[in-house]
Amino acid sequence: MARTVFNKEHEEFRSLVKEFIAREITPRAEEWEAAGIIDKAVYKAAAQAGVLGFSVPTEYGGLGVDDFRYNAIVAEELARGRSSGVALTLHNDIVAPYLLRLTDEEQRRRWLAPLAAGDMTFAIAMSEPGAGSDLAGIRTSARRDGDEWVINGQKTFISNGILSDAVVVVCRTDPEAGHKGFSLIVVEDGTPGFERGRKLKKMGHHAQDTAELFFSECRVPAGNLLGTENRGFYHLMENLPSERLSIAISAIAGAENIFEQTKVYAKERKAFGQSIGSFQANRFTIAEMATELDIARIYVDECIRRVVDGTLTAVDAAKAKWWCTELNKKVVDQCLQLHGGYGYMLEYPVARAYQDVRISTILGGTTEIMKEIIGRDLGF
């Protein structure tokens, strides 16, 4: 079905994003995946190309384009190519909204302008060894000492944890207040007491640096508080619907990409004198995938519209996130099966997709957490 959520200007931007990926990312994908980390200079190139920080107001060096459809296009095109760990969606869909919504003028000059220029990269540090989906389990603490915050604790599974110039750390600032006792504090690279641990070895997304972070009597200025003290949980929740939708957008685009490649393979690959796609069992599998992807695409595009008009709910996003990531996992698995032995070879995109897809049902809130959100909304 024809997509109607984007207009001519959006599709022109899509062409720009595709060109950027082809020029700056694709030629170095193998190198970055082998090294386990990307070249940080790609963020500067992304900013210059207009695909990073475009929502930042012009007075801070951005383009002033506040339209989530542009975010969606970047997410889709990265998912269709080999994004190789370039965390543009982390910056465009998560960090930039926090900095736009929660900073004062001095903080905008210090953090937002460098983000828009590609001179400063960020990470968000929520997960801990004992706290993943359950934010109430966070133990990293921050206590006020005069004009400073003193942070102690450990974070893990932090995307962009090695390359980031600054980390937005979720800290417990009121130990007795439960979810009402969290704050967001920005810790910049080189701060005494802040150390990066291992670059974690993962099943997939090998070029994307994921790390452990440690804070030991880490002192940061009081002015590094992002937003309001003890309102960190609410700040996180405000942006979660669009963050989770971004994951769903990437999931569907990635699944569609592998499905299209598999259709070509199923027509060209011969077995017993005919194309493998012409066997009824395989033809039915392909037909089912095509149907499910079309239906998911329509729902996701409607969610994109709701972000634009301000009506997307946390429940809408939870439905999109769990369904699309589980569908992506299913489609990639079935496509690999259709490739047979070749699907197990890493020179084929479907094999790399199989490695990468597994995290999608976990990050940003597990499938089970998404169903919990939906179930509670239904009154159960």
Note down, in words, how this protein is organized.
The chain is of the alpha+beta class and 380 residues long. 49% of the residues lie in helices and 16% in strands. The protein has helices spanning 8-25, 29-35, 41-49, 68-80, 88-102, 105-117, 232-268, 280-309, 314-339, 349-357, 367-377, and strands at 122-125, 141-145, 148-159, 166-172, 182-188, 194-199, 210-221, 225-226, 270-271, 274-275. The strands form three sheets. The protein has a four-stranded mixed β-sheet, with helices on one face. A hairpin with a 2-residue loop joins strand 9 (270-271) and strand 10. Helix 1 (8-25) runs antiparallel to helix 3, helix 5 (88-102) runs antiparallel to helix 6 and helix 8 (280-309) runs antiparallel to helix 9 (314-339). The two termini are 36 Å apart. The mean pLDDT is 95.
Layout of helices and strands:
Blueprint (H helix, E strand, L loop, with lengths): L7 H18 L3 H7 L5 H9 L18 H13 L7 H15 L2 H13 L4 E4 L15 E5 L2 E12 L6 E7 L9 E7 L5 E6 L10 E12 L3 E2 L5 H37 L1 E2 L2 E2 L4 H30 L4 H26 L9 H9 L9 H11 L3
Parallel strand pairs: 1-4
Antiparallel strand pairs: 2-3, 3-7, 4-5, 5-8, 6-7, 9-10
Helix pairs in contact: 1-3, 1-4, 4-5, 4-7, 5-6, 5-7, 7-8, 7-9, 7-10, 8-9, 9-10, 9-11
List keywords for this structure.
49% helix, 380 residues, four-stranded antiparallel β-sheet, single chain, alpha+beta
